[in-house]
Specification:
This protein is α+β, with helices and mostly antiparallel strands. The protein contains 3 helices and 3 strands.
Length: about 80
C-alpha cells in the first residue's frame, strides 16, 4: 500500500463556492485514493479532485493525527 495526500472541494458554501479539504489516504494507487476521497462526507461531487500526490509514511501519520475536517475548520479561522 502507498500513502497519498488528496485535495478535494468541500461543499455547503453556496452555489459554485467551495473550500479545500485535504485527506491522507492509504491506497494501492493514486486513482484508488482519489476514488476513496470522492466518497468522503462533505466533498462536492459536482467538481473533480483538485490535486493528489504520493507522500511518505511519516507525513501520512502526521496528517492522520488530526481529522481532515478539524484541520479544515482550523484553517478557516
Amino acid at each position: 500500500m502507498r500513502y497519498y495526500k488528496i485535495t478535494c472541494p468541500r461543499g455547503h458554501c453556496g452555489i459554485g463556492q467551495y473550500t479545500d479539504i485535504v485527506f491522507a489516504i492509504r491506497a494501492a494507487n493514486l486513482l484508488e485514493a482519489m476514488d476513496k476521497a470522492k466518497r468522503m462526507p462533505g466533498v462536492k461531487h459536482t467538481r473533480g479532485i483538485i490535486s493528489g500526490k504520493e507522500i511518505s509514511f511519516e507525513e501520512f501519520q502526521e496528517m492522520r493525527r488530526v481529522s481532515a475536517y478539524e484541520r479544515c475548520a482550523r484553517a478557516a479561522w
